[in-house]
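Known limitations

Files may contain more than one protein. Parsers should not assume a single record per file. Below, a two-record file is shown to illustrate correct handling: read the sequence, read the token line, then continue until end of file.
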Amino acid sequence: MIIMLTFTVYFLIPIWWLLVASTKSRGQLFTTNPLWFADMAFWNNLVALIGYDNGIYVRWMVNSVLYAGVGAFVATLLAGMCGYALAKYRFRGRELLFNVVLGGVLVPATALALPLFLLFSQVQLTNTFWAVFLPSIVSPFGVYLARVFAEASVPEELLEASRLDGAGELRTFFTVSIRLMLPALVTIFLFQFVGIWNNFFLPLIMLRSEELFPVTFGLYAWNSTINQFPELRSFVLIGALLSIIPLIITFLLLQRYWRTGLGTGALK
């Protein structure tokens, strides 16, 4: 417990510092206690952040929600259908295909960034919404987890009963199987959402227009120009604090599902 408490404090101190720093004016950041509050200027900082450069930060947050929210939803749906097919259908090359998917799990995303850039350059999709969105809807780990969970949680007898009642394969999946696979699907969604939200390298090489930046890359761009524009320091701090709120909310709302999904995958 002492070790766990130590690491908990270690991980929470940066968040606490970020919260405290977001409530201070620019002049108080280096002249007051870094881990305790001074004059409460949070609201003024928030208003200044939202109004800066015609509300570009709000645009970045909307972009991140679209990239991560819609991308994670589509990736979860595709991974769920693919994993279900690998688990419940017998066809030639099934195990080979699954081994290829497992190989995809082992390949780091940064290693694929340059090939993706070259591919998207050939079809003239760089510096567009699709350059970040399309790679985000592929989740090899999601396919693996969906197959493991489908094998354990979707009985063959239930599928046979659904087919005898006249339901087609798509209707069986969307009305019967998908409900039994819900914990795994929520886990896939959560992992994909966090991965896309925190993705930095792909937007770095794909995007040039500021209006298309996700919030993580936008804050990095601001942070790189702090020496030229010192007022951006406060914006980066409060912007970083606001950017982690969607992740915290998503974890809290979905925690009971993803614990079950991870537990089943680990046991399998």
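...continuing to the second record:
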Amino acid sequence: MKNHAALRAAAHLVLLAGAITMILPFLWTVSTSLKQLSEVFVFPPRPFGAELQWGNYLRISERFPFDTYFFNSVKITLIVVAAQLVTSSMAGFVFARLRFRGRDLLFGLYLATMMVPAQVTMIPNFIVMRSYNLVDTHWALILPALVSAFGTFLLRQFFVTIPESLEDAAKIDGCTPFGIYWRIFIPLSKPAMATLGVFVFMGTWNDFVAPLVYINSVDLMTLPLGLASMQGMYSTDWPVLMAGTVICILPLIVIFLLAQDFFIKGVTLSGLKGE
């Protein structure tokens, strides 16, 4: 009993140390955003300056088109999240419930695409986008992200856990496959859908490489690319940059807190069940 309690205490200490390690950079970012530039590199470091500089958050839009960056990120992220929830849920339903020749082989090939590194497909994707004159447009960021093998796998794993008796009852009532998908599976899959939504939101919101490759115009930049452009060649206003970083992080925190219960249930139900 004592050994078990000691192991639990040690595990909690390790988790606490990990939590502190991960939250310290964020706290330092918030701290730097409220300092004057001359106070950022003071040694020994101080958590806050002589006076909190809330004006740094107002100076962001004065020096950079931050509202444009923010709007671009919101637009692209919402479109991608909505599209992936639709396409992944439909594909997941097909692979989980419909029976047709070659279904498992096709599903395996689809999952195999997850093993291909994004760096391998970067140049072919760029060539395709350039051939359709989509470089330096938001469509170059949206179109490749409309479908997701991971999202299909996640929702398929959840759909196979839904009792077949519900599907059989719907068929007896004359429900079509699409009606079963829309009226039964979608309402029951809120935890898995929320989990996928959080993952897609985080990945799209934080994506830096794709905008760096496809976007050249300032008015089309997303937040990660816009924040990178805020670093000067010879000097950088670090408090203003950190203020922009805090604003960039806040939507992720809000989304996760709002979907936390669904997220935990979705990870549990989708990751442990299967045929």
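Parsers that stop after the first record will miss the second one. For reference, the second record is described as follows. Residues 69 and 222 are 5 Å apart (CA to CA).
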